[in-house]
Amino acid sequence: MKKTSFLLTGLVLSFCFGFFLKPVATLPAKAPAETAQSTDNPPTTKPMKLGAFSISLSVKDLKTSREFYENLGFSVFAGSMENHYLIMKNENALIGLFQGMFEGNILTFNPGWDENARNLEKFDDIREIQKQLKSKNIKLTSEANEQTSGPASLMMTDPDGNVILLDQHR
Question: What is the pLDDT of residue 40?
Answer without folding.
Answer: 62
